[in-house]
Please model this.
Amino acid sequence: MSRASFTTNTTSSESSREPDAEVDAEQTRRTVLLGALAVTACLGCSAHARAGEDPPGSDERPQKGDVLVYSQGDKEGKLITAADLNAGGPPVHAWPKDPNTSVVRSGSRLNEILIIRLDPAELDEKTRARAVDGIIAYSAICSHAGCPVTAWVKSDVGDKEVFKCMCHNSEFDPRAGAQVVFGPAPRRLAALPLALADGSLSIAGNFMGKVGGTQPG
Model:
């Protein structure tokens, strides 16, 4: 009797443990699966973050030999040629681009450039010396508070069109080295010498003058 009783009790205990073991196994499988999914998601996020990072060289200042590409509009990223520039303006906004690596130097807003084609006879001697076929380039960042220079309008103090920063109404005459003709800007826009070969524009040297503003925008 006692043996039979023992056998019955043993069978009952084993039966009660089997569901528990199955539950534990299922929980383990779920834990492993969730862990794998989490790792996969994390790797995906890391890859996305890396993909969104600026490539090396994108925040470097314009380099000699860089070409110029549109920085905005329908042609953004496309190469700018001399034929794209209308005589008398308006200016074109551009980024420098490394022709060897194809890296566009858009990692710093201080790299944006204004390019304009004017009558060479209207340029002063120093400006004409660094222009090519009347094409000249300047920093697109105002020297006052670092706002973007976006307008090409008739000056408040003359009858010629000028670059204008709409933040605080500073005006710059590109014919005279982008000197200040109106507003609070303390100095001219930094100039950028250009070169021209077979209709293609490129940068011939470093910025001439300080780029950016003297106070927060």
The helical segments are 2-52, 125-129.
